[in-house]
Amino acid sequence: MTEASRPEPSVPRLTSLSHGGGCGCKIAPGVLSELLKRSTPPALFPDLLVGTETADDAAVYRLNDEQAIVATTDFFMPIVDDPYDFGRIAATNALSDVYAMGGKPILALALVGMPINVLPHDTIAAVLRGGEAVCADAGIPVAGGHSIDSVEPIYGLAALGIVHPARVKRNAAARAGDVLILGKPLGVGVLSAALKKNRLDDAGYAQMIATTTKLNRPGAELAALSAVHALTDVTGFGLLGHTLELSRGAGLTARIRYAALPWLAGVDALAEEGIFTGASGRNWAAYGADVRLAPGLPAVAQALLTDPQTSGGLLVACAPEAVDDVLACFRADGFDRAAVIGEMTDGPARIDVA
């Protein structure tokens, strides 16, 4: 961690004020699924192109034949102690849901919950500035929001975007034979756990901030490629959880090649020391029955594959002939670690990792 990322001695660490951090704060997928089963099904709205039926990244509502609104919200507790970085990460993560639908953000509203008598007002203001900086980078305003006095610090955005109705990219439209491409390296949860244990060095902190504050802008360009069939982002449920959503939506088997997965530097060594977030175990408990891990994988494979990714990368399912175009789209925007990690095949809705 850099000196700039350390709070003053008299100021409590942001991460010390929350019971979890980043997308690792998500309700466990099994619990969430049970809660949603008890919800009242929405009425039929013919212009609601994407709702809750496939656990997609955002809602999409058609305005006319040329325009649809993408609407999403995402917020969480601190994953880092630097307030400006916390704001940047949370805002980047929230806007990712718009890009994951193939949309382009148009505005955001801030969602703020802070222990107002515990944190200095300058600290809270720095969180807001961080979010505003990311939105400015995305070319949109933070046009309002809502705030409460909260026991734990919480920040995020409600974000709106726009997309052509014919270019909406869902997480449920993958086809047999599609290639899977991941836009960002994995391991954010491991690095965040190391940070909380004071085990993350300056280089590790720098790479964690770099990846979690990089906007998934290629999503809007990928939407223009007809050979891109499905799109999502990899966040709190880990690579396996979000890939399983693709598999279940399409009724196909996803095959992942472990050796092809890109990792942030140092993640494997930290994992071998047992440094993980609690969310890894909760994730596996929720969906591990639908995953087949081949013999011979590293002992830490299960925990790494379920590692929650705060502000993670886009996961693309595309026809084989579009692989070069998809990789070129990523690399044109600086996603140099984008990689082919597997494919979709006929078979039951599950994941095979070899």
Overall helicity: 25-40%
How much of the residues is beta strand, in percent? 15-25%
Mean pLDDT: 92
Number of E-state strands: 13
Q: Number of helical runs?
A: 11
- Return the string of H and E elements: HEEEHEHEEEHHHEHEHHEHEHEE
Major sheet characteristics: 7 strands, mixed
Termini Cα gap: 35 Å
Rounded to the nearest angstrom, the radius of gyration is 19 Å
- Cα shape: globular
SSE-based structural type = alpha+beta
Sequence stretches where pLDDT stays below 50 over 5 or more residues: 1-7
Strand order in the largest sheet: 8-11-7-12-9-13-10
Topology at a glance:
Blueprint (H helix, E strand, L loop, with lengths): L28 H9 L10 E3 L8 E4 L5 E9 L6 H18 L3 E11 L6 H17 L4 E8 L4 E10 L15 E4 L5 H9 L5 H11 L5 H5 L5 E6 L4 H13 L2 E4 L10 H6 L5 H10 L3 E3 L7 H5 L8 E5 L4 H10 L6 E7 L4 E4 L1
Parallel strand pairs: 4-5, 9-13, 10-13
Antiparallel strand pairs: 1-2, 2-3, 3-6, 4-6, 7-11, 7-12, 8-11, 9-12
Helix pairs in contact: 2-3, 4-5, 7-9
Notes on the protein architecture:
A hairpin with an 8-residue loop joins strand 1 and strand 2. Helix content is 32%, strand content 22%. The chain has eleven helices and 13 strands. The chain is α+β, with helices and mostly antiparallel strands. A seven-stranded mixed sheet has the order 8-11-7-12-9-13-10, sandwiched between helices. A six-stranded mixed sheet has the order 1-2-3-6-4-5, covered by helices on one side. The protein is globular and about 60 Å long.
